[in-house]
Amino acid sequence: MRLLEDKVALITGAGGGIGEGVARYFVKQGASVVVAELNESLGNAVTADLRALGGKALFFKTDVSSKDSINAAIQAAVDEFGGLDTLVNNAFAPTPNVLMEDKTDEMLKQTLDTTVWAAWWSMRAALPHMRARGGGSIINFYSIDTEIGAWLHSDYNTAKSAIVGLTRSAAAEWGRFNVRVNAIAPTAMGATFHKLAAENPGFAERSAAMRPLGRSGDPEDDIGPVVAFLASEMSRYMTGESLHVDGGIHLPRYNSRPADVPVREY
């Protein structure tokens, strides 16, 4: 039997990058997948690919900054597939990479809305449906950026730090419903990676060399199996955990300071 046979999963931001890779791995493991994606063309294309793989998939246009949109996506999963077993909170809307003093309130609000609030709303909406199934698994995405205080990502670091707290709180309280809540900090060749690689010659090679495993991760083959593990019965006694899925880059860390920023300014 495949790892996720007869499971129903909703994956936010599954129209590309890591979310798409996880969705592809999930259907190969037998899950029915809701592609909760804002971009209709990307969402429809990924859904068609998942069905071509022999999987059951539904695209639902989802704006994760809207509570009503998230609630509707959760309900669509239940209506289409009969329930919900797994929620993967992957989506977020990036803001410009600028210094903290140049980040605006609007940038912080956008990041909080599409990460912390999105996870809060989706987790709470998913809970009654998971309870009806006798339990479930929630996988939230955080980031190594929070651990190193990555430059130009102050709003993102703030939000992803909150995701860890939310994950642990839900794990502590919802274990009584057999709902497990874990987080991963993935790095892989997603949309942002390919954009940086196209704009910066040698970026891909440097990125691979920084990791003890000597390569950059593949969204489907490297990230997908870990998320599937957390969604499956193989991790049935595991909750409140935060895992690095990054080829080991959390060991040496990395220097994110831009080259053009002086060491000291007055």
TrEMBL record:
Gene3D superfamilies: NAD(P)-binding Rossmann-like Domain. One of its GO terms (molecular function) is oxidoreductase activity, acting on the CH-OH group of donors, NAD or NADP as acceptor. It holds the Pfam family adh_short_C2. It comes from the Bacteria. InterPro entries: NAD(P)-bd_dom_sf, Sc_DH/Rdtase_CS, SDR_fam. Belongs to the short-chain dehydrogenases/reductases (SDR) family. PANTHER family: SHORT-CHAIN DEHYDROGENASES/REDUCTASES FAMILY MEMBER. This is SDR family NAD(P)-dependent oxidoreductase. It comes from Halopseudomonas laoshanensis.
